[in-house]
UniProtKB/TrEMBL annotation:
InterPro entries: Glyas_Bleomycin-R_OHBP_Dase, Glyas_Fos-R_dOase_dom, VOC_core, Xdiol_ring_cleave_dOase_1/2. Its cofactor is Fe(2+). Belongs to the extradiol ring-cleavage dioxygenase family. This is Glyoxalase. Pfam families: BphC_D1, Glyoxalase. One of its GO terms (molecular function) is ferrous iron binding. Residues 6-120, 145-269 form the VOC domain.
């Protein structure tokens, strides 16, 4: 049965593109692919973009861009979604041009995220290679995609059913932690795609106003995590959580606040799932060590 290959891109709706450009390039190490009055495209590799920042007032992630490998796979997947009762719409020429893909469909999930499904992403010419302004290495992308998102669920059970039973994402594991935050029981479900990044999507009910708790980007060198943390502190940007290590994806990371008010996890060392040997587990801690809450109040 056909499944999505990877989370290829995300779209962020933001009120201040200048702040996002400074943050993404100068702090995180992404490269500006193109910039207009209302759209900022950000590169992480040989693609023309992995993140699109569109001008608006939501200041949140609005779109998750899932990829399939071929037009036949995309058509078969859309047919499958429709048989499962999902309202899928084909994107018009303007949307395809905006996303720089060959063909695209989309639907909306119970929490309000738009999920786009496409094939044929555009690569930059070799005369314009990826060149981070600050990284020693690069980002872990390729077939593993842009990274991951922790999506805030309006109703966790409904969202988990939608992602698993409608979109066909595979459950990686669960974290149920009643001690990390006093008075708040964390109950998160993690999902992976065919290519195996430990999770491309996670969800749970979290008492915040944003639809997005965090995005994650993964550096290929641990030194780049440390250097990024130094840049964050030097710039005076608030940390959400300090350096720590997760038990499920084994990521060493910190969380920094973005210009839009959700956080960005900046990590190294995440594992790739081998479906032939993987066992779904339940963890009782969000972090093995570190990841201490760093925001005031």
């Amino acid at each position: 049965m056909v499944e999505v290959s990877t989370l290829g891109y995300v779209v962020i709706n933001a009120s201040n593109l200048d702040d996002w450009e400074k943050f993404a390039a100068g702090i995180l190490g992404l490269q500006v692919g193109s910039r207009g009055d209302d759209v900022l495209r950000l590169r992480m590799d040989e693609r023309e973009y992995r993140m699109i920042v569109e001008r608006g007032e939501e200041d949140d992630v609005t779109v998750l861009g899932w990829e399939l490998e071929t037009e036949a796979d995309l058509s078969a997947y859309v047919d499958l979604l429709r048989r499962r009762g999902v309202d899928v719409v084909e994107g018009d020429a303007a949307l395809r041009q905006s996303r720089l893909v060959e063909k695209l469909f989309y639907c909306v999930d119970p929490s309000g995220f738009r999920h786009e499904f496409s094939y044929g992403p555009t690569h930059a010419p070799i005369s314009r290679p990826f060149n981070s302004p600050v990284l020693l290495g690069g980002f872990v992308t390729g077939e593993l995609g842009v990274g991951h998102i922790l999506a805030v669920a309006r109703n966790a059970a409904e969202s988990v059913r939608f992602y698993a039973e409608k979109l066909g994402l595979r459950i990686s594991d669960y974290i149920r932690d009643t001690e990390k935050f006093p008075g708040v029981a964390v109950d998160a479900t993690f999902f992976h795609t065919v290519t195996g990044r430990h999770h491309s999507l996670a969800t749970g009910e979290i008492p915040i106003q944003k639809r997005t708790h965090h995005l994650m980007v993964q550096a290929s060198a641990i030194d780049d995590v440390g250097l990024a943390l130094d840049r964050v502190r030097k710039a005076g940007i608030p940390l959400a959580f300090d350096l720590g290590h997760h038990p499920n994806d084994r990521m060493t990371s910190f969380y920094v606040m973005t210009p839009s008010g959700f956080s960005m996890e900046y990590g190294w060392g995440g594992i790739v799932i081998d479906r032939d040997s993987w066992t779904v587990r339940n963890y009782s801690q969000l972090s093995d060590w570190g990841h201490h809450y760093a925001l005031p109040g």
